[in-house]
Amino acid sequence: MTYSKPSFPGHLRLNSEQAKRFGGAEFDNATSALFVIDVMARKLARRRKNFNHQVVADAISKTIEKMQTEVSNEIQRMETFLKKEGISQRPNYSNPLERKFNISSPR
To answer: pLDDT band at residue 57, thresholds of 50, 70 and 90?
Structure first.
């Protein structure tokens, strides 16, 4: 019997060369590193009762939230600049990078 596993599909379109570089290999490296940290922290927590996996998870979450805030602030700053300068037209890009992904849910 095969169980149904919940996941959240996503789609990311990256236009600029800087975004494509980050969204390519750098993004893959970061997600792999986070996965390894999670696996190792869980393993340490099972083997050493004094090791607190939640502290590691909280530290990572805090770092990600800080990065998310910085990105959101930069987006807001750029939108304010565009509005102030009367720029409403956005450029088209001839070769965007399309990334599809699934985020697994534990429930």
So the answer is: confident
Q: Are 9 and 107 in contact (CB under 8 A)?
A: no
DSSP letter (8 states) at residue 23: I
pLDDT for 36: 87
Write the DSSP string, 22-78: IIIIIHHHHHHHHHHHHHHHHHHHHH-TT--HHHHHHHHHHHHHHHHHHHHHHHHHH
Classified as helix, coil or strand, 12 is strand
Write down the residue that tokens 């986070």 correspond to.
Answer: 34
The C-alpha atoms of residue 45 and residue 51 are separated, in whole angstroms, by 5
